[in-house]
Give the backbone structure.
Amino acid sequence: MAEPVFYLQGGTALRHRLDAIRRVGSVGVMRDIGEDVVTSARQLVPRKTGALSASIRVGAVQPRSVEVLAGGGKVQYAAAQEFGARRHFIRARKKRNLIFWWEREGVLFRGPVVNHPGNPARPYFRPAVEGAGIVYRLKTEVINLWNAAA
C-alpha cells in the first residue's frame, strides 16, 4: 500500500512568514517599552524627596526582554513602597544614634533605635507595567512582520 502524498501550496510563503515572526522582539522595541514603563512609574511613584523616582531606570535590554530597575544606592525602600512593609526596628549602625526630623511628631528624633510602624503598599511599578500595553505592542509587531513577509 502506497503512502499518501500531500502537496502544500504556498509552503515557501508560509516558511518566510514563520521565519519573520521568529524575529519578534527587537532591542529597539524592548527599549521603547522599558522607557514607557519608566515614564509611567515615575508619574505614579509616591513622592517625598524625589529620590525613588530618580532611581527608576532601564537596565539590560535584550531582543526579547527588558529590565526596569528601581532603588539601589541610598534608595533601599523601593520594594517597601511597592509591596508595603510590616512593623520593624531600625537600628543605628555606623553611628551611636539615628538623627532625623520626625515629620508626624514635628520633632527632631535622636536615639539608637526606631520602632517603625510599617507602611501600606503604594504600587507604582506593577500599574506602570500593566499600563504599558506590552501584549498589544508585541501582537502588533507580530502582525506587521507576518504581513511584511508575504
User: Anything to note?
Assistant: The chain has a mean pLDDT of 88.
